[in-house]
Specification:
heterodimer; A: alpha/beta; Rossmann fold; eight-stranded mixed sheet; disordered N terminus; B: 116 residues; mainly alpha; 0% strand
Chain lengths: 357, 116
Amino acid sequence: MSAADKATEPTRAVLPFECKVYQSYIRGLKAWWKDEAYRAVMADAAPLAGKGVAALEAELGKVPSYQLYGWLERHLQQFKYVGRWGLVPVIAAQSAELLPILKQGAERFPERLKLDPNFKVPDYVTDVDTHQHPGSTWSDDYDAFVHESATAGFSFTLGDSEQLVERYARPLVELSQPRDILDLGCATGKSSRALKTAAPQANVFGCDVSAPVLRLAHVRAVEEGMHIEFSQQSAEKLNFADGRFDLVASHWLYHEMPPQAIRIAIREARRVLRRGGVFAIYDMCAVPGGVVGEWLHAGYAARNNEPFAYPLVNLDFETELRAAGFGDVKLEVHAPPGDRMPASRTHYMAMVTAVAQ
Amino acid sequence: MTQEHEALISALETQDAFKDATTSRLLGTIVALGGEVFVLKAQVERLTRALQAAGVVDAAALARAGEDKAMSAWIASEERQFGEALLRPFLQPDQVKNVAAMMRDNTSVDSAQVKK
């Protein structure tokens, strides 16, 4: 890392005291939701576990525990984003200070940031206020800072950069021994930086459909003295030559894509991978808990504006990946085995890896 | 897509957890009010700490109090307790015995008529 690559000081949205306290309030309610309300729903759902997902929704839709659970899942996230001290109004009010950070950041090592003014963000992105974030990450430049703040404590991998390296990036690097890495759907570049940390000699490229988050990803990489190249591209149509990479990874991407787009993206990943290269998907590819788990996951997908998270769990990755030219497909689910549900509401992550044949 | 999945999605797309818009709106008001109260509580705590620490109230003292570790620890503790206090009444709305039946004449007070 050279001194010249270092930014002089951190450049983040500053959340005023009232906003931090308000977000703490929302976290407190969410904690109660994911523990107490969830357990009440599980108790009420247990006698109905033999029924199908539609029957569960119909019958528990009349029960206070699930009514409250569903309401909280939907509305607490909206308070987080657009409440009185929500992240969107607070950070939008700082646009005059924040947007120059992106503009000036783009002027440093401009060859490492390739934005396409003619790029059309896919409808499946623009039609969804993903995570209930109005405008999601693509509509305004300040949205990148909103996304960065909103996801800071979201999961072990997003909330703790060391964990992201150790539990996500390093195993992939050890598996693929890459010289060239592509991080699909990189957003603000946390996963790209983790991959670069785990493989400092490798060439790391990050791509996303959203220009605002790519601008911020570039700022953060330069701040940390990392040479990472970011570009505005869709996972379905990449501007890279055949066989360009040894590792094509994605961290929380595919649950935001409909199945037909995923199928195209899988084939595109195979195209840009060398023979023997590794394709990795870290996402909500499977849910535990049988019918109850599937039903709650469907509710989450509907209520949190992540509609494609539901069909994702019904996608047969083994078949899809083999049809696209991959072998040695492995799916590792980070969740309780069988029909057991976790003790509290959590995201059920899975790592899918496959080797290009 | 199966008929069952279609039925599930149709039910979910109403985004009406209570099947009653008034209840949903009322809870929205309560949670918003809770946000005001929570922020106010934090502001009072911050002011108290500033007064105790500096003896005078100024912006620097307020900012310092808001950022110190003890204040953060207080918030971390309070966020959980406050959330529980606010939401538990929904699942346990009536925590005392219902003795309305005892208003009837000639009613013997036995446990069968004292309902939770």
